[in-house]
Amino acid sequence: MEFMLSKNRKVKLALGFNDVSLVPSLSTIDPVDTDVSFELGGTRYELPIIAAAMDGVVDVRIARLFSEFGGLGVLNLEGIYCRYDDYDEILKKIVESDDERVTGLFQKLYQQPVLPELIEKRIVEIKSGGLKAAVSLTPAGALKFAEVVEQAGADVLVIQSTVVSTQHRSKSGGVLDVAKLISGLTIPVILGNCVTYDVAYAQMEAGAAGILVGIGPGQACTTRGVTGVGIPQITATADCAAARDDYFEKTGRYVNVITDGGMRQGGQICKALAAGADAIMTGSIFAGCPESPAAPYHWGMATPDPNLPRGTRVKSSVSVPLKQVLFGPSSVTDGTQNLVGAIKSAMGLCGAETIREFHETQIAVSLSFMTEGKQLQMSQRVGMGK
Amino acid sequence: MEFMLSKNRKVKLALGFNDVSLVPSLSTIDPVDTDVSFELGGTRYELPIIAAAMDGVVDVRIARLFSEFGGLGVLNLEGIYCRYDDYDEILKKIVESDDERVTGLFQKLYQQPVLPELIEKRIVEIKSGGLKAAVSLTPAGALKFAEVVEQAGADVLVIQSTVVSTQHRSKSGGVLDVAKLISGLTIPVILGNCVTYDVAYAQMEAGAAGILVGIGPGQACTTRGVTGVGIPQITATADCAAARDDYFEKTGRYVNVITDGGMRQGGQICKALAAGADAIMTGSIFAGCPESPAAPYHWGMATPDPNLPRGTRVKSSVSVPLKQVLFGPSSVTDGTQNLVGAIKSAMGLCGAETIREFHETQIAVSLSFMTEGKQLQMSQRVGMGK
Amino acid sequence: MEFMLSKNRKVKLALGFNDVSLVPSLSTIDPVDTDVSFELGGTRYELPIIAAAMDGVVDVRIARLFSEFGGLGVLNLEGIYCRYDDYDEILKKIVESDDERVTGLFQKLYQQPVLPELIEKRIVEIKSGGLKAAVSLTPAGALKFAEVVEQAGADVLVIQSTVVSTQHRSKSGGVLDVAKLISGLTIPVILGNCVTYDVAYAQMEAGAAGILVGIGPGQACTTRGVTGVGIPQITATADCAAARDDYFEKTGRYVNVITDGGMRQGGQICKALAAGADAIMTGSIFAGCPESPAAPYHWGMATPDPNLPRGTRVKSSVSVPLKQVLFGPSSVTDGTQNLVGAIKSAMGLCGAETIREFHETQIAVSLSFMTEGKQLQMSQRVGMGK
Amino acid sequence: MEFMLSKNRKVKLALGFNDVSLVPSLSTIDPVDTDVSFELGGTRYELPIIAAAMDGVVDVRIARLFSEFGGLGVLNLEGIYCRYDDYDEILKKIVESDDERVTGLFQKLYQQPVLPELIEKRIVEIKSGGLKAAVSLTPAGALKFAEVVEQAGADVLVIQSTVVSTQHRSKSGGVLDVAKLISGLTIPVILGNCVTYDVAYAQMEAGAAGILVGIGPGQACTTRGVTGVGIPQITATADCAAARDDYFEKTGRYVNVITDGGMRQGGQICKALAAGADAIMTGSIFAGCPESPAAPYHWGMATPDPNLPRGTRVKSSVSVPLKQVLFGPSSVTDGTQNLVGAIKSAMGLCGAETIREFHETQIAVSLSFMTEGKQLQMSQRVGMGK
User: Fold this and answer.
1) What is the value of ipTM here, to two decimals?
2) Which among A369, B298, D225, D287 would be 20 to 30 A from B52, CA to CA?
């Protein structure tokens, strides 16, 4: 929906998680009969929840756990794990720092160079025993390290920055030709992030096997406050999904839309999938798990930026083991555990057997979710804090 | 009102209690001259407020009290009252549990089997002395126990789950054929819950004497946060009421629309009735009454779910006796007492002699209720907390 | 603006104070050159701010003060002043009661009968020395006491209830024929309250010299929470002003629209006047003045209702003398002092020389007032609380 | 977007910072290649951020610092610096006053007359060593002192009041003929404030080199609460920018639109520029810098008004040096440092090489910014408070 901001300027209405809910359908389905898998680069993944490439969320161990669960935990190859061989000490420093000094500490720690031999080492560690390795690089890192990544045997490469542009201009050169890079690789590439139809379509044309949707919505990201740039996730997901559907109709190639960021509860994950996502990526939900590398802390990829850090170290409340967060049983009622169960439950209520059927769900928009819904959550949170 | 979410996807605007208010009419009527009754299965009920089938809200004693008041208090036949003969001890355990352990306790207590002989016993206890018994079962429970319920002499059977679908698919079988069940019973059946025109119409076609409207709005229910599914109550009620009116026009049979959940004050009950409900169902309003079985606690039907509990134990502030909550006089000014008086007062201002006339009330929508209205309530709550 | 709630039901968008702001005009005017007076029943009043008929706001002394200032302070003839000759003791009891017992105390105190001789006495006391007396009665009171009021020499009679209907139905009889009553009186009558075009027009046809606009918006009134009935004040005022303009065009008689309730700051008063009001009525703004009869408390007219009290005793923070609240100078910057100065300042910015010109002001609607505007107010309040 | 408020009255939807976000573009650009300069009166300024003419924000030293940075810090010529030769003692009194007495203190201190010799002295002090001097006067002050200002060699004159009208009426005379004044001066004049197309266009026709946009949005200004007058900044900026574009098309003269007030973070500044501003003016952001004259306090120009003060003394949290606030590096992630870096980063994401290209950015509107966005900011603020 568009309307006029001024005499000569249109604005577009955009919706986020708290603005919408899913409409149950006439026909329902038994949750146990639903299928939540998605396919990426010829491989089927049973778990539509991907762990984000944040140093406080995914280390080698977590990457392996996600692969065991049938999913993907993405290791950030430009984070501390490929800058330091013995990273335990580094994590300890971060966990023990106080709030005031931690941004400076990040800025210092991330100045250490990324080592190609550590990239190779981490990929081998993840894959050991036949598991899948998903890893991430920035566009600048991809120029340098994409070849190493492929040779080390990674299964999925994520190229991720605040935005990854197929049409980037820089007078200093060094611009990544995304399409050329992808065409030179044999492994599937996920590109991110984007929030609009046009950029999503261009990334698909550049050969992406998946695209990450979301600028600034995550808990550890402050891009929106710092630069004013961003789109709420429901509209961003639906617009990028429309690009996917059009691209699929034209080319026959189905590219995965992966909503990345802003989800803290099962309900929000269900909304992202119903809005058009094939899978979702999240970090903060897992940061409180006991297996988490820097529990209870995590931080964003833009946090260590030396000039304009756009993220904070966030403290999560202590949670249950990762497996219980993903598959239950849930011991709480606030939607933070048994995420797969929540998805299956929502698909059952909306009569969707697969996630692609779930994309047909009717969505309702309401002012009152802000009050009805949130009030409830707030009172529960208060109650649980006791 | 619909508008475009993306290139190929529409969304529908939906409204909740806090978004609307009722417009007084040109012609007014003396509140004492209003009639708030409704008819269900040939019986007239003077009280349009039904107590919800929650173990913390309705036991045998409360069910009898509601019948004495001319209304219905629904006993949950799959709750603790039909799992344990001596349930006082069980209630005591729940009341004495702390917040952290109570979800686990619920999950354990509700694993005890439901006993047909206790179903029969409770119905007989409620009816003793000529009172009416309304009882509830889940669809799975209805497959097993509907016959027992009818034979025991229940007057109204509520078949209730998060949604009750007339078109449910399950590979493991055991699906309830709602229409067949109803046609085999002689007592009126209320089906629930639903939130859309299509499902409401299908439930009427299946023979329902009443339908329950509401998914996720209640204080003790977190379906919306956990699964993202739900519709705000004003739109849900108005849509289901439109189905009732169309079905009535086509068949001549009038099916009761009963708004279930999300109401804490008289004003919200009035809004539900004006939006199209013939009666309303609520639990939390009564949980603080001294007669309440687990006062001051109550909990939802989805709370004990072993895998994905979607509800919490909620603590209410201590209230006045049930009769005063329903019929006054009110000793407070926040709309939580004399609910029938509030309905009659609103009907007077809107010039409606009967609830079916009240369905013609004009409704206003406003952003400002969120601020004007709520601010007031908040300041009062703060003031009263002292 | 109307849109569809369901298949067959329209709802109307309504706006409140926090939703709007006033647009400054191309042409501005010196505030000292503006004229804020209004005319009622042939008399010109210099002060467009009327003190509400609340026992905690207007006693004989305050009524006299308002008349001296060129305005009207309305004495409630069915309040404690005409039930008790020595009311000081009664006020003291109310002030000294605690929050929990005060509703019951009100219910008891207001059961004492209203005495015609006290009505006469109070009117004479107010008028002493040539001042104007404005007094209020409920419709039921008007049936009994209107004649006494006129004979005692009152200058303005306000007939006020939650709504005053020209088409009220009651099987028990005793319905006030408003038009007949007014035609039998020689003094101007203000009727209230109403919130819609139709009712406003009907009250003008019944002979009202002024109408009060507002149901449930006041700080001491909880009608909206208790019954769900009400309309936000900007839309209510604009709709009733449209009725006034149409009635004036048809009959040549100009009836005053008086916005009643919901205003706490100069900015809200300015918005009401710009939305179409000729004057405004408020109680809570004056309750904190040292001259106030039950300072720092006040309460609403529906507070003492024996069955369904719809109002609370509200505590105000201590303020400056009444004259300073009305005419300044202001020692604070939150809009609670120098209300007339604020009106003149707004009229200057909007280029209006008279209040009827002020009715032409363009109004802007915004979501962001809820955040931009209110955030500011909140931070100030926090700052001032220290 | 307009819609009907009542039968005969339209209202216009207006948007503020919290309602919108910027949509990243298909084509992006390296932030280091962006150009943030603007041109005023033939001089190019590298810094599009102007320090507001508030006594607590700009003294001679800060004015010089801004000029050194390539920008403008406007000295208020009717503030304490031109009323008192030794102003340090005055600032000390203000800083040491308590909250309750400070409004009265302001009212007293600002009664001292403005001295022409101090005006001259301050301008000479600022310009010493070849720097630029920007100074401000009210319309009344401009009548008296504009000549002195020009003769003293000021480079930019700002004529500023709540609104500066080209069509002001006053029976007491003394009205500034803005067009005549400007035509008699050789230095560029910035007029302010305005919020609508019509007034912006009229100010351009009167010869303004720049216009200030914003009524009531600033942290130290309460015009909106006191008088109800104001327009949220995104709509105000876009409307005034539309006037600039139309005026430019007609006359070939490009007038700068300068958004003034309401911005606390880089993201809000980026939004103002994308909405059509050529530069922005802010005070509160700098008030916490150690160089600030009354750190950590500042106050608005309408604060000392003797009758209707419309502003408060605001306390800022202590910040980093001014240079770091403007150019970084940032040690925090909340958008309050490295403002120029934030602008360049946003321009890069939106593919804009110059600020005039940035005016083409697509803007999204969302309810959810109020929740998604603000929640984030709030949790961070809470986290940082510890």
Assistant:
1) 0.90
2) A369
